[in-house]
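Lab meeting, action items carried over

1. Structure of the two-component assembly. Owner: GW. Status: complete.
Input record:
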Amino acid sequence: MTVIKERNIFENISKKDVYKKLVDIFRVENVSDKNVDLYPYSYDMTECEPRMPDFVVIPETREQLITLVKFCNKNLIPIVPYISGNNVGGLTIPEHGGIIVDFGKKMNKILHVNENMMYAILEPGVTFGQFKKYLDENYPNLRYSYPYAPPYAGVVGNAILSGMNSFSCKIGSMGDSINGLEVITAEGDIVRIGSCFYGKEKADPDSWWSRYPMPDLMGLFINWQGMTGLVTKCAVQLWPKDPIQKAFIAIIFGLTDIGTLLREVGKSETVDDISYFNIEAAKIHLFIEPAKKFPEEPDFIAIMPISAKTEDLFNAKKNLLFDIINRLNKNGKKIILVDFEEFAKLASLRYLALFDLPSVVLATVPKSGITWFGSYCPTDKFEDLIEETDKIFRKYKYHSPIIYGKIMKYAHYGIFRPIIPYNKFKEEEKVHKILEEMTDFCINLGCIPYKTPTWMTSKMREKINPGWLKLFDKIKNCMDPNNIFNPGRWNT
Amino acid sequence: MISIQEPEDIITIAIHNILSSRIDDKDFYKHVHDWNKKVVLEIRPFYPVTIIFEGDDIQFSVGEIKDADITLRLELQTMLDIAYGREDPLLATQKGIMEMEGLGDDSSNLVRFYNIFLASMQKVANNPNLNYFELDKKTK
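Predicted assembly:
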């Protein structure tokens, strides 16, 4: 694990005075320094080392946050943005203490939906469940795309950390679906990025329709894990909800043959998404544990939704999908392709939760811990990645080995994500060994972890081009010279 | 009270799902009770599993046992077609897309087999409830 250098954050101002100032800004009912309130913010589901914050504040307005940032920048006090604590990477564990800014409680409004230009402006605390319900009730012709995450996870956090979604085969990373951001910088300035940059004082809510073609400053905030500013608004793209939507399930025999399927189907432009799970994951989902795989059983399943505006278009896409699978089978693969809903009704309705996103993987809840090597990967390495991580899981005789992933943007890149549900406090040492072994192997094959814990970024730093690191550090120093924004992330 | 073994593999998961949907059904009990047969079910291209009916118990075993009483082999797609009413089981047998052995001339065997497997499968398929989050934990 990375050793974090302790930093005395109360060198310039006493803790008592910080509390007073926070109460001034947020009112007493929205500030706490009590351990009982701070404890839930000190850890997450992962094996990342817990660390107590000094305060938690619940903001209601952007103006409160501007005052907070100016105050913290002057007094060198860390600010850690928090939405619902569902990330799998220790991203909101305050490595240097400081102030947790909990957006989830009150800055959680859907501010505007432009139906015509298909985008929504959101506050950081909006959750997937809230957003889906709102769109279904008010804009039934539009849809957002959802990750394999619980309904109480945050939309904006997922977008600015380049999470995946249920439309990934078409649109790729969620980071690409951001039209605009409003950010508070270290000096306390409000910066609007994207086509919403017109307007001296405020932006027209109907002006958040594109991030191009001006210099793309979005990159200063996307994937930075809150290290360069506080995002207070985010415009995300929406998509037409096609009247015909049906999913198919491919059942794949052969440990690594899923790789060929992902590439071939991904390139065919037929499906909205391909989510693949190893057979053990499918069993864990049904509470079958230990999730033993019988030698005769298939190795992977892949769920592939197709959407279309007409029956003819749907049938054309479906026929193309079946043709691809038939061709693969003729070439020696063993893949079954059937209607997903029909299969799930006979096999177990619970499988539907794999597709009806957002959803909670209920079976992992009693375990209390979950961690992963969540990465973007080169699609020609799927086979090697699956083979080796499967080996590592077997070497450690791990009871709940999950391999999950996606093909992104018509097979330009992929997602490879071994997931490890575990019993917190009991299995952390073993789990960390497994994860570390997987990390070393996968990074060597070119995988790039996302939503990354600091121990993982320190491994990445050993391999990253020095010019990139120099520029990265320069930008961080320029954006946040006093290192107040989520310090410690990416080993800053 | 019928007891059904908890499943461990992808095929017995489905069989368990189908049979357990009728665990409180008196008609189902009547057919299962003391049937005392070993049924091999092979859903192709998966693998065969043996379903053992003994008294009120239903047990599973991955693989095909030698002394099976009844054997049923069909493709997964044929199974779905039968369940969802696109294929008639009798015609499927005549067409050779569903192979059945061991039912002989004993009509009570045929009735029991039909009721336990095919009727249960069709019942699950025809259930309009897709609310996986409202499943009865006892039976699913």
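2. GW to write a short summary for the group page. Key points so far: Residues 107-126 of chain B form the longest helix (20 residues). Chain B touches chain A at residues 6-10, 13-14, 17-18, 45-47, 62-63, 76-77, 79-80, 83-84, 121, 124-125, 127, 129-133, 135, 140 (CB under 8 Å).
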